[in-house]
Every structure is written in C-alpha cells, then in structure tokens.
Amino acid sequence: MAATTSTAASSLLATKKNLSSLSLTSANNLPAFSPLLTSSRRQRFIVLSASLNSKPTVLVAEKLGEAGINLLKDFANVDCSYNLSPDELCTKISLCDAIIVRSGTKVSREVFESSGGRLKVVGRAGVGIDNVDLAAATEHGCLVVNAPTANTVAAAEHGIALMAAMARNVAQADASVKAGKWERNKYVGVSLVGKTLAVMGFGKVGSEVARRAKGLGMHVIAHDPYAPADRARAIGVELVSFDEAIATADFISLHMPLTPATAKILNDETFAKMKKGVRIVNVARGGVIDEDALVRALDAGIVAQAALDVFTVEPPPQDSKLVQHERVTVTPHLGASTKEAQEGVAIEIAEAVVGALKGELASTSVNAPMVPAEVLTELKPYVELAEKLGRLAVQLVSGGSGVKDVKVTYASARAPDDLDTRVLRAMITKGLIEPISSVFVNLVNADFSAKQRGLRISEERILGDGSPESPLHFIQVQIANVESKFASAISENGEIKVEGRVKDGIPHLTKVGSFEVDVSLEGSIILCRQVDQPGMIGKVGSVLGVENVNVSFMSVGRIAPRKQAVMAIGVDEQPSKETLKKIGDIPAVEEFVFLKL
C-alpha cells in the first residue's frame, strides 16, 4: 500500500512540473480544466490522501454563519482565525487543506506558494472573487468555489429599498429632522407607480427586482443579451436593447457583473442618451459606473438622484464628491447583509468546500485542476480556436432577443470515439458567456453555466478532410434565432455563422456567414462588407495607418468579381471610434464591425 501511495504522489508531482511551464492561466493562454480521469482513479487518490490524515483542516479567515461552521466541523478540523495579516496568513496556510474567505482577505500568489502544495480548496463566501488570485490557484492545483445564489433575495430587497428611499428622500429627510429642521416642502418625492424601470442585467437578482417592482405598479423593461424572452414575458417584463432601455427609463437599476465589456458602461456618452431626471440604483458592482461622469450628470440635471451600495474603491474616499452629493443616497455594500442571507451563504459555501475536499465536482467552481499534459499538447490550439470563435459569434449578436440556440460542428477525420469534445464545447461556452458575465467557465461548470442562462448547445461531427493525425479540420459555430449587428455574418439558413481552423499551430478565422476569409485570430478584428472594387484594401489600410493602428492580417472574401466582398482585418490595437467612423465613411463600405478577442 505504501508503494502505491508513493507512486501516485510521484506521478502527481511529475504532472504538475510538466504543466507548470505551460502558463495555462494567463489571459492569452488556456484556462485549466479537470483531468479526464476515471472516477476510480480519482477516488483511489482521495482515499490514499485521507488515510494519511483522518480529517482535513479548514481555515475560516472571516466570520461565517454558525450553520456553516457546524457543517464544516462534521467533516473537518475547523480553525476560525479572523483579521490575519498577510504574513500571518502565509504562515498558517501551510497547515490547512482549505480556506474560506469573504471579500476582506486576499488569497494572493504568496498564499498559494506558502501552502507548500497542501491547500486544495479556496471557498469564497459570496459571489465576487476579485480577492482570489485565480491564476495562482490554478497553477497550484487548487480549486476555487463560491456561493452565488444564497444572497439573491437580500440583494434584490436592498435594491428596492434604495429605490424607494431615494424616490422619497428618506435619508435626507431623516438627517434634516435629526438636525432640528422640519422641511416638508424641500423633500417632496416622486411616486414609483406608473414609472418605467429599466433592469440592466436580468439574472437572478435582476429578475427578483423586476418581480418586486411589478408589485409596486411599475412598468418594467430589461436589457440582457442572454435572458430568454419567454422567462421575461412570464413575469411581465419586456426585453429591449441597451440604448432603448436607458433612453426610456425613469429609473435604472444595475445588476450586471463587472467585466471589461461593462466597466464604466454608464459614462458621459450614455448619460447623454438618458431621459432628463432619470434616477439610478446600483447594488451590483461599483466599476460599472464612471463615478466622475455621474457627478457631472447629477450637476447637469440629467440624473435627478442616485442610490448606491457599491463603489469603484471601497470604502470610498471621505471627500468623495459623489458620496457627499446631496442628491445621492449611499450604503456601505449592504446588499447581502441580512441574517438570512448570511446563514444561507455560510451553508452554501460550507457544502461546496466539503464537497470539493471529498473530490466531488462543484457546479459553483470557478476554476479546476489541470488537464493532462498529453491532452493539452494536442488540443491547445483548437481549445484557443474554440473560445475565440465563441467570443466572435456572441459579439455579432444584436437586439434584445437573447442567445438561446447554438450549434457547433466539428469536422474531423478521426473516429467519433477518438475525439473528446467536452473541452472544446466548454471553451465555446466560455467564449459565449464570459464577455458579458462574471462567471468563469471551465470544463467543470460549462454545461451548468449554459443551462442557467437557457443556452442550448448542440454538437455535430462530420467527416473532414486530412489525416487522423490532426484532431480537427475545422470548427463551426452557429447561433440561431437572433439578429446580427453585421448582416453579412448571417448564412444562407438565417443563422450567424463563423468557422475557423488551425494553421501552423495558430487559430484562423476562415468563414463569416457565406464569405470565405483567412485571418489569424490574434489581437482584434475589423469586418467590413464592401463593394468589390480596386483600391479598397489601400483605402482602409491608409485610414488605420494614419491613426497608428497596426494591421497584422488582411483577407478579402467575395461572392463574385465586382460584387459584394467581406474584408477581415486583424489589428494589434483597438481603433478609436473616430477611426472606425472614417472606415464606415468610405463610400464603398456598406457595413463594418469591430470585434475584440
């Protein structure tokens, strides 16, 4: 038995050494996935580990509800040590198999390095994982899980509370009375009934806010590219475009995650499109609002009032103009702060951590252990291609109908049982979801994440050209029943279609709609539909050159000479809006779109 344990441990260490040099977790490389191991092999390793230490140790570094602590104690030794300094945490972590934190403790690369490989699970009691170094966790083979559902109702209730308090000037009137004043005329409010509320982000919290607002007699509209229209209709909510939502709303309630696509999504430009006198509530993430722009909008009278529970920097500076503004109501990130929510979060994260320590795959995991080196070596460029095709396809979608049906086609010369597409499907799902979501998608949670969003992904395998030595000839992604912001991406069957293949180890985009192109999927891409005529490449290239935008690839696909053509341009930098407008102003350019990879 001892010999078997030694062999298993040596094999695991060797695998980690081989994989560590691949830098799987950087933004431009691959995320890590669970090993495609049989359950018996995984179970054997867990049993052997357990035999070395009858109970694992869980460090609870921030206050957790009693129900969660009791659940942990049934399975593990629990060490509740709060307010640890970074040095103290690094010293203690080498004795722990798991750690549970909230938002106040940073689980940095130094923490993982100090654990000496013992730390197996990080549990985040809440949704956001900004305080956990995911790249370091993955490199050290440590699973990260969170608790995304338990505080949904609490956050929704707080959003409604802030909206009502803002509309009736409750905070300001309270401060006035306590200061010995009686200013009834000064604090005349507005009614909620009959007003239009735009819910920006129609996930768990957003939909609960919508239900409660309907009960208050409000007309509710929503924007969310993934929200199924039938689910919205079931509670009397109309899905609309982003611009329509902000232009028609009397109240705007934010429930979107903070991603590169949503950072400062409310800014000077978007405030200018809003109805004068709009009121804004934010219980999501502070970074989705440009706070300086909000102050300017308040001073200009575009925004009548704002109610904020979250800020770009928390706590915000004491002299913050936004916090001190007389028409702004603020609370110190209380969205999840109810007794019931805290107990629910404690139970949810405790169950996830215990399950992970038992070797179970949690649906709330945000990363996973690494894929075996031999599988990664073969699939690496195709995994990258799969994610980028997903990212391209979803960015081509417009309108408020939501993405529901996706078809993925794999062309391969291999037998069906000689190609495991789970990793590829997971990466396509990752590309479809992550650009507009805070969810980190991997092999463990890809199907769950898709199901939660009503996203149906079907797969088809066809016999492709080439040798079975190569895993795939091409990958094709189609999105049905949606409109496209680039009409040429619509294929003959009315679906958005993108297709790509790997050439010399580099992912390439080879088809958009019905147009054949050939552009390396590096940097970002501009797609232009144009009249096929001499000089077009030079005209577009000149615009980009004058603006100092470097072109990495350029390819033109056409239906027939002197008819329509699609130009695909790979660029290293993101062009300014002015640059893109100049491209659109070229007479022969009929439409264009910029796609960020």
Automatic annotation (TrEMBL):
Give the molecular function GO annotations.
Answer: NAD binding; phosphoglycerate dehydrogenase activity
Enzyme Commission numbers on file: 1.1.1.95
Superkingdom as given in the UniProt entry: Eukaryota
Q: Name one Pfam family in it.
A: ACT
Question: What EC class does the entry list?
Answer: oxidoreductase
Chief subcellular site? plastid
Pathway field of the UniProt record reads:
Amino-acid biosynthesis; L-serine biosynthesis; L-serine from 3-phospho-D-glycerate: step 1/3
The GO biological-process annotations, alphabetized, read as: L-serine biosynthetic process
The S-adenosyl-L-homocysteine hydrolase NAD binding domain is annotated at 185-339
Q: Which InterPro entries match?
A: ACT-like_dom_sf, ACT_dom, Ado_hCys_hydrolase_NAD-bd, ASB_dom_sf, D-isomer_2_OHA_DH_cat_dom, D-isomer_DH_CS, D-isomer_DH_CS1, D-isomer_DH_NAD-bd
Q: Which organism is it from?
A: Populus trichocarpa (Western balsam poplar)
Catalysed reaction equations from the record: (2R)-3-phosphoglycerate + NAD(+) = 3-phosphooxypyruvate + NADH + H(+)
**The name this protein goes by in its record:** D-3-phosphoglycerate dehydrogenase
Q: Where in the cell is it found?
A: Plastid, Chloroplast
Q: Which GO terms describe its cellular component?
A: chloroplast stroma
Which family, according to the similarity comment?
Answer: Belongs to the D-isomer specific 2-hydroxyacid dehydrogenase family.
The UniProt keyword set, sorted, is: Amino-acid biosynthesis, Chloroplast, NAD, Oxidoreductase, Plastid, Serine biosynthesis, Transit peptide
